[in-house]
C-alpha cells in the first residue's frame, strides 16, 4: 500500500504517526498539495530510488516533471514562479524528502538558493532571463559559496573577482560541494571584490556555466546523497560583463548569501521530517509482518517503546516546523536566525536518530536498499552538515541567548 493510500485509510494525511491531531493544523488545500507531491514520489521516485542510489545516479530526466509539479522556486512570486506559501513549500519539501533527500536537495538548490538569489538580489534583466525557465525546469541553477578551505567560515573565501578596465569582471578561485554544478546552466558565484574584504567585499555574480574558464567536476565515491550530484568548481579567468553582478544593496557582503541560506534551511526543517516519517512507516510495517519467537515484532515491549518515542519526536518536529512556517507566512520579518537555527538543528538531530533506530529495528535486512531507513540515515549525514553544521546553529542560538558572539576566539 502506498503512503498516499495509507494516509487516506488512517484519516490523517500524515498517516499513523499523527498522534496529536497534526492534520487539523492544515487546510484542505495544503493537504491536497502535499498528497499531490506524495503521489508523484510514489509513482516516479520510489520504484527506482534504490537503483539510483546504488548506482550513484541523479535522474535528470525528472527535472521537467518537477517543474510541471510546481515545486521549483515554489515560494517565489512572479516571473513564472508558483507563488505558494511557506507552509505549502514546507509540506512539499517533507514529501519530497520522504522519497529521498537528494530529491529535496535538488529542489532546494534550484529554488531556495539559485532562484532566490536572482529573485531577491538580481536585476530585472537577470530575473526575466532566468527565473521563468528555471521555474519550468528548462534551466538549472547552482549556488557557489562553499570553498575547499571555507565551509562554516565563508568570510574567509579565497575566490576573487577583479574589475577590468572596461567594467567587466574576472573571477578566479574554486568552490566545493556545489550541488548540480555539472548540470547547471547558470551558477550564482560569491566572490571577494576587495583584497582585504573581510566579508564586506563579497558580491554575487550570475555566471552562465558555458563561460570559458568555468569547470564543474562531480565528486565521486560518496557514502551519502548518492542519488544526487555535488561538484567542485574551478574558476580560471572567468570573464563576465559588468551586468553579471547581483546589483541589489541587499547582496553586499555575507547578508546576500545568508538570506538565501535561510530559505534553504527553512525547507530542511520540514524536509527531514519526511525522511523521519518514511523511516518510521517502514519499521512500523515491518514490525507487523516480521515474526520472531512466534510473535510479531510489534508485540514486543521494546519495539513498542521505540515506536512510541519515534512518533512523539516526529510530532514535535512537525509542530516546530509548523510554528516557524506560519510565522514566515504571517510576517517574514519576525523569522529570526535563531528560529531557523532551532528548527534546522533539532529536526535534523531527531530525523537522523529515527532513521538510525529504524535501521536497527530492521535487523540485518535493514542494511539493504530494500528498506529506506539506512539510505535516509546516510543522506541525513549530509543534510545535517550542509547549510550550517550543528555547531554553527548552536552558536547562532547561543549568541541570541547571551548577546555574545562565540564564532571567533579572537
Automatic annotation (TrEMBL):
EC annotation from Swiss-Prot or TrEMBL: 1.3.8.6
Domain Acyl-CoA dehydrogenase/oxidase C-terminal: 259-401
PROSITE patterns assigned: ACYL_COA_DH_1 (PS00072), ACYL_COA_DH_2 (PS00073)
Pathway recorded for this protein: Amino-acid metabolism; tryptophan metabolism; Amino-acid metabolism; lysine degradation
Essential cofactor(s): FAD
Sequence ranges assigned to domain Acyl-CoA dehydrogenase/oxidase N-terminal in this UniProt record: 30-138
Domain Acyl-CoA oxidase/dehydrogenase middle, chain residue ranges per copy: 142-238
InterPro entries: Acyl-CoA_DH_CS (IPR006089), Acyl-CoA_Oxase/DH_mid-dom (IPR006091), Acyl-CoA_Oxase/DH_mid-dom_sf (IPR046373), AcylCo_DH-like_C (IPR036250), AcylCo_DH/oxidase_C (IPR009075), AcylCoA_DH/ox_N (IPR013786), AcylCoA_DH/ox_N_sf (IPR037069), AcylCoA_DH/oxidase_NM_dom_sf (IPR009100)
Cross-referenced Pfam families: Acyl-CoA_dh_1 (PF00441), Acyl-CoA_dh_M (PF02770), Acyl-CoA_dh_N (PF02771)
Superkingdom field: Bacteria
Catalysed reactions, as listed in the record: glutaryl-CoA + oxidized [electron-transfer flavoprotein] + 2 H(+) = (2E)-butenoyl-CoA + reduced [electron-transfer flavoprotein] + CO2
Keywords: FAD, Flavoprotein, Oxidoreductase, Transit peptide
Similarity annotation: Belongs to the acyl-CoA dehydrogenase family.
Name of the protein this chain belongs to: glutaryl-CoA dehydrogenase (ETF)
Amino acid at each position: 500500500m502506498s503512503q498516499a493510500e495509507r494516509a487516506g485509510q488512517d484519516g490523517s494525511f500524515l498517516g499513523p504517526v499523527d498522534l496529536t491531531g497534526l492534520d487539523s493544523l492544515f487546510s484542505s488545500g495544503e493537504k491536497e498539495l502535499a498528497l499531490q507531491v506524495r503521489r508523484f514520489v510514489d509513482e516516479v521516485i520510489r520504484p527506482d530510488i534504490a537503483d539510483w542510489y546504488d548506482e550513484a545516479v541523479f535522474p535528470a530526466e525528472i527535472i521537467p516533471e518537477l517543474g510541471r509539479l510546481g515545486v521549483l522556486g515554489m515560494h517565489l512570486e512572479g516571473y513564472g514562479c508558483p507563488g505558494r506559501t511557506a507552509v505549502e513549500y514546507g509540506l512539499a519539501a517533507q514529501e519530497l524528502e520522504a522519497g529521498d533527500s537528494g530529491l529535496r536537495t535538488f529542489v532546494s538548490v534550484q529554488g531556495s538558493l539559485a532562484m532566490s538569489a536572482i529573485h531577491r538580489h538580481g536585476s530585472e534583466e537577470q530575473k526575466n532571463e532566468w527565473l521563468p525557465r528555471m521555474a519550468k525546469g528548462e534551466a538549472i541553477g547552482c549556488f557557489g559559496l562553499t570553498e575547499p578551505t571555507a565551509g562554516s567560515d565563508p568570510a574567509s573565501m579565497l575566490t576573487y573577482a577583479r574589475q577590468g578596465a572596461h567594467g567587466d569582471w574576472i573571477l578566479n578561485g574554486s568552490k566545493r560541494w556545489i550541488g548540480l554544478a555539472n548540470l547547471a546552466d547558470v551558477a550564482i558565484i560569491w566572490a571577494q571584490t576587495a583584497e582585504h574584504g573581510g566579508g564586506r567585499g563579497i558580491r554575487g555574480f550570475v555566471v552562465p556555466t558555458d563561460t570559458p574558464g568555468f569547470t564543474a567536476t562531480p565528486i565521486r565515491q560518496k557514502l551519502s546523497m548518492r542519488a544526487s550530484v555535488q561538484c567542485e568548481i574551478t574558476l580560471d579567468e572567468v570573464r563576465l560583463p559588468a551586468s553579471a553582478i547581483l546589483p541589489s544593496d541587499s547582496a553586499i557582503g555575507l547578508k546576500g548569501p545568508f538570506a538565501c541560506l535561510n530559505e534553504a534551511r527553512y525547507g530542511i526543517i520540514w524536509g527531514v521530517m519526511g525522511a523521519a516519517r518514511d523511516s518510521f512507516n517502514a519499521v512500523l510495517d515491518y514490525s507487523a509482518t516480521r515474526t520472531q519467537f512466534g510473535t510479531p515484532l510489534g508485540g514486543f515491549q521494546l519495539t513498542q517503546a521505540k515506536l512510541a518515542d519515534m512518533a512523539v519526536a516526529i510530532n514535535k518536529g512537525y509542530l516546530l516546523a509548523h510554528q516557524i512556517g506560519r510565522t514566515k507566512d504571517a510576517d517574514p520579518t519576525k523569522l529570526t536566525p535563531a528560529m531557523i537555527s532551532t528548527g534546522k538543528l533539532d529536526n535534523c538531530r531527531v530525523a537522523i536518530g529515527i532513521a538510525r533506530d529504524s535501521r536497527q529495528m530492521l535487523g540485518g535486512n535493514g542494511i539493504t536498499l530494500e528498506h529506506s531507513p539506512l539510505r535516509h540515515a546516510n543522506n541525513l549525514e549530509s543534510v545535517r552538515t550542509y547549510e550550517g553544521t550543528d555547531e554553527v546553529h548552536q552558536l547562532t542560538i547561543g549568541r541570541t541567548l547571551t548577546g555574545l558572539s562565540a564564532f571567533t576566539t579572537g
